[in-house]
Amino acid sequence: MGFKMGIVGLPNVGKSTLFNALTRTAAAQAANFPFCTIEPNVGDVAVPDARLDRLAAIAGSKQIIPTRMTFVDIAGLVKGASKGEGLGNQFLANIRECDAIAHVLRCFEDDDITHVEGRVDPVEDAQVIETELMLADLESIEKRLAGLTRKVRGGDKEAVQQERLLKVAQAAIEDGKPARTVDVDADDAKAWRMLQLLTTKPVLYVCNVEEDSAGAGNSQSARVAEMAAAEGNAHVVISARIEEEISQLDAEEAEMFLGEMGLDEPGLDRLIRAGYALLHLQTYFTVGPKEARAWTISEGTSAPKAAGVIHGDFERGFIRAETIGYDDFVALGGEQPAKEAGKMRAEGKSYIVKDGDVLHFLFNT
User: Fold this and answer.
1) DSSP code of 40?
2) pLDDT score of 17
3) Which end of the chain is more exposed for a tag (fewer CB within 10 A), N or C?
């Protein structure tokens, strides 16, 4: 299980440059004019995790298979997108299919790159996008409420629940708040997700700064950080240009380049960690002489459900999970030493998998 993050923002904020860097391709055309990204470009990238490399080295694994995440570079948005302005309709349809939204915000000055609004104000840019998504949700809610009327009158329980949740979302948005601010009961959680409202998507603000500010950010990214904190959203600071340069280098050259820039790691690593936290995701590992592999699951996933990520038969025929914590596996030097030290545990169906667990599943065929 990976996740799909839509890269969105106003035109010319650096979305496609960032996408190119993230996917190490030039599939997304980065050009200085609005709507240069007409179709959503999709890129699958490996999730960097130093733990996987270490586990593979200890186990002598012939192959290393990281978990993956998907980035979708979505067409630039302008005011009026909810009414079909620019490429609004297409933008809204594409974003609906993503698990989370990365708002790329321009936090740099550059007279050679036109801003569609003729100014640099990342906070206002974020508000433009949020407003358009809320307006689109309101229009969708009104249409769906009208369509539910007959079923609600007939006492259809599912329709009654949908109507109630839609009205709650409508009230929040009309009060100027995105639907993600609504507290939903556990009994309504599934139905709430099925509404697929745009403003229920988790948001990560990506502050695209000039190269010299890639480490500590600048005054504009500081404003975004303040806004994100007030909203309960996350933010990361990245220089898309630096990331694009790094993507063209081999590992040794990239490390030297980062050192020269005074950076500890690529922005991609920070972005992925922030994305994981945003969606409450974590990683477990399967390790052996053939391969060392990382798997992504949601926090709170039970052992059978985690097994099902590998194959449905593993979940259906689940017997138990042989579990070693990452720290124990590394400290003791592998599976057998961990087993001899009593650090391998047999866990049943109720076990909640922890981040970094090294697992081996036993199941009935």
Assistant:
1) P
2) 85
3) C
Contact 216, 261 (CB under 8 A): no
Residue 301's SS3 state is: coil
User: Which among 61, 83, 118 has a CA at the least distance from the CA of 290?
Assistant: 61
pTM: predicted TM-score of the whole model, two decimal places? 0.82
Give the CA-trace dihedral at 11, 14, 19, 22, to 10 degrees: -160
Which position has the token pair 């009208």? Answer: 146
DSSP class of residue 352 equals B
Q: Is 98 exposed, middle or buried (0-12, 13-18, 19+ CB in 10 A)?
A: buried
Residue 264 DSSP one-character state: S
pLDDT value at residue 323: 97
Interval 190-225: pLDDT, tens: 999 999 999 999 999 999 999 999 988 999 999 999
* For the chain, percent of residues with pLDDT exceeding 90: 57
Alpha helices in 175-250 (DSSP H): 189-194, 219-231, 240-247
> Which helix (H) or strand (E) segment is 43 a member of?
strand 41-46
One-letter amino acid at 10 equals L
Rounded to whole angstroms, the Cα distance separating 54 from 57 reads 5
Dist. CA 276–CA 322, nearest whole Å: 25
Distance CA 306, CA 295 (A): 8
CB 358 within 8 A of CB 324: yes
Closest to 5 (Cα-Cα) out of 264, 249, 191, 236 = 236
Of residues 83, 173, 80, the one with CA closest to residue 129: 80
What is the spatial distance between Cα 223 and Cα 230, in angstroms, rounded to a whole number?
11
**Which two three-digit tokens encode residue 194?**
């099925």
